[in-house]
Specification:
34% helix, 5 helices, alpha/beta
């Protein structure tokens, strides 16, 4: 009987550790637009990355979040394209297309923050969350070539270090991979 109780205790401990480790993991999803075919861009093309407007959650605004997103977008693309430039200020879509044309860029990446929620997860047990939309345009025609919705959520056991911008690198690499 004692042996059975010990075995059950070991199995319960393993289940608990498994659940704890699962709670530590960040998750993300990349939803590629089904109505737009995935383009194959060339390494010789140039890209202008618009500066996203800062995110907010309810009444809380996150200054600098738009810059963090735009920089996170540019990083994996800098590895593959010969010329990538980040906008210096926020622009609406028409202004961004105009800036890209003036700069002689082939492509425009227009990012939008749909949800940005930075929580003190380690004591509130509420996850950090981020949702962004990325649209890639051909500058000459202003046609949308590709679009993606990226969602990320932190695990519950973050130990105080995670923020919404920390949820972006992996899905942005996946988005970049879908372009080449």
């Amino acid at each position: 009987m004692r042996q059975i109780a010990n075995n059950i205790g070991c199995w319960l401990a393993l289940v608990w550790v498994g659940q704890l480790l699962t709670g530590c993991a960040d998750s993300h999803q990349v939803h590629l637009s089904p109505e737009l075919p995935s383009p194959r861009i060339q390494a010789g093309q140039s890209l202008y990355v618009a500066l996203a407007r800062d995110g907010a959650y309810g009444e809380h605004h996150y200054p600098g979040s738009g810059l963090m997103l735009s920089q996170a977008i540019a990083t994996p693309l800098l590895k593959r394209l010969t010329r990538v430039e980040l906008a210096r200020h926020t622009e609406n879509l028409n202004e961004a297309l105009s800036s890209a044309r003036k700069g002689g860029y082939d492509l425009l990446c227009y990012p939008q923050i749909l949800h940005w929620e930075d929580r003190a997860t380690e004591w509130s047990a509420r996850s950090d969350k981020v949702t962004v939309k990325l649209t890639l345009f051909e500058v000459a025609s202003a046609n949308a070539l590709h679009s993606a919705l990226i969602e990320g959520q932190s695990g519950l056991a973050t130990f105080g270090g995670d923020h919404p911008q920390d949820l972006l690198p992996a899905p942005l690499e996946a988005f970049t991979d879908s372009l080449f």
